[in-house]
User: Fold these one by one.
Assistant:
Number 1:
Amino acid sequence: MKTFITSLFLILALAFTAVAQETLKVDITKLSQQELLVYQQLKQKQAAESLSLANITPDKINTYAEVGKAFGSAFKECWSTVATDAEKFGQSDAGKMTMVLIAWKIMGDDAINLVEKSVQYAIGFPLLFVGTLFFIVVLRRQCFPRPNLVSATKVGWLTVKREYKGTLNPQWDGEAAAVVCLFYAIFVAVCSAIIFIG
C-alpha cells in the first residue's frame, strides 16, 4: 500500500508539473519599445524550449524519454501492487464473501427466477396432466353410456375374461356434464396460472 501511495504521488506530481506551464496573453499594441523587445525575447526563448521539428535535440528527446519511462514504471508498479493486493484480498474469507455478494447482486434475480419457473413447471404440468385424466374418467363413467359388466373371471396371470350384457345409462344428465366441463375449464385456468403467471 505504501508503494501504491508513493507511485500515485509521483504520477500526480509529474502530471501537475506538466500542466503548470502558464500561457500569458499580452496586448502588444500597448507595450513600449523596451517592453516589446523583452516580450519578443521571451517568445523566442519559449519557442526554443518547446519541442518541434525545428529545435529537436537528442538531449530534449532523452529528457522526454526519461519522463515517459518514469511514468511507465510508476504506473506499472502502482497497478501491479493493486493487482497483488486484490488477489490477496480475494483469497481471504472476507474477499470470498465479497465475491459471493457481488455474484449474487449480478445473478441473484436470474437464479431466483430460474428456481421459481422450475417449481411452477414441476407442479403445474403434472397437476394438469393428472387432473385432465381425472376429468376424462369422471366424464366417461358418469356422463356417457357404457357396457354393463356381468362377470370377470381370471384366466391367466395377467389375463381377465370379462362378459358384458347390455349398456348402463349415464348417472348424470347433460347439465351435470356441463358443470363438470365448467369445473374442468376452471381447473385448466388455475393450472395455467400456476405454470405461466409468477
Number 2:
Amino acid sequence: MTDDVTAEIITSIGIALASLVAALTGTLTVILTRRTSENMRQALIQGNAIHTLVNSNMGAQLRISAVALRQLANRSADPQEIVIAEEAERLLREHERKQAVVDIAAAEARHDAFQREAASQEGIASPKPRRTRKKT
C-alpha cells in the first residue's frame, strides 16, 4: 500500500467516526430533551396539584375561622369581636371568589386540552386555546 492510499483510508475512517459521533450526539440530545420535557411536565403537574391542595386547605381554614369567630361574636355581642368575625367572613368570601376564578380557568384549560386531543386524533387543525386568567 502506498502512503497516499493509507492517508486516504485514515481520512475516510476519521470522517466515518466523526459522522458516527455526530449522529450519536444528536440522538442523545433528542433523548435528553424528551426526558427533560417530560420531567418539566411532571413538575408542572405536581406544582398545580400542590397549589390546588394549598388553596383547598386555606379555604377550609378560613371557613373554620369565620364560623368560630361568628359564633363567638354572637355569644358575646362584643362590637370588637363582631368586627373580627366580619373580617374573617370577608376574607373567606374573597378567597372563594379568587378560587372560583382559578376553577373556571382550570376547567377551560381542561376543555381546551380535550378539544386539541380530539382534533389531533381526527387529523384536523386544533382550535386555539382560550386566554385564561392568572392563578391567584
Number 3:
Amino acid sequence: MKLKYTLSACVDCVAWAANGTIPEDRPNLLNDIHDCLGADANEVIANADGLNAHGEPYRDSEGNEIDSDHPDYELRREDWFSWSHCGCCGSSLGGMRNRLAILCK
C-alpha cells in the first residue's frame, strides 16, 4: 500500500480506525467520516504515529530518524491538544489529536 496523505484526527476517529469502535455518543461517526473524506473514506485508514504531516518519519537536527531507541523519542508529538477540526470526521470539538494515514492500493 502507498501513503496518500496523513491527517490530524480526534480520539473517536483514532479508536474507529484502530478497532472499529464507535462511541455511544457518536452514532453517526461513520457518516461524518464519509462526509468529510468523501471517496477517501473507502481507502485504508491506519494509525500514522511516528510520521509527520508529510508522511515522513520524524528526524532530529542531524537527519537521524527518531525511533524508540533515540534519546529524543519522548519529544515526538504523537498526540496533542487542538481546537482545530478533525481531519477525518470534521468534528469541531477541541481535544486530543493523533495522526492517521490514508493509504491507497
Number 4:
Amino acid sequence: MAKFILGFCVGIAMSGICIFGLLIAKGRTSFVEGRTKGIAVGRFEAAEAIEKEFGHYKGESAYQVLLSTTGRVTSYSGTVIKTNTVVCIETNGVKTVRVIP
C-alpha cells in the first residue's frame, strides 16, 4: 500500500511540474501577443484621430513615412487585414500630417 501511495504522490508531483512549465510558456507567449496587438490597436487609433483632424493624403506632393501599421482587425463580419500609413508632407515650407488608408 505504501508503494501505491508513494507512486501516486510522485505522479501528482511530476504532473504538477509539467503543467506549471506549460503555464509559464503559455503566459509568456500570451503576454507578447497581447503587447503586439495593443501596439497595433494604438497605432490604428492614432491614425484614425489624425485622419479625422487632417484628412487623407491625396498624392499632391512627396511624403515621408512616419508610421506604418498592418494588422488584423476582428469584427462581427470576420477578420480583416487593415493597413494605415501616417505620412508627413511639406508644402510651401509647411509640414502637415496625413493618412494613407
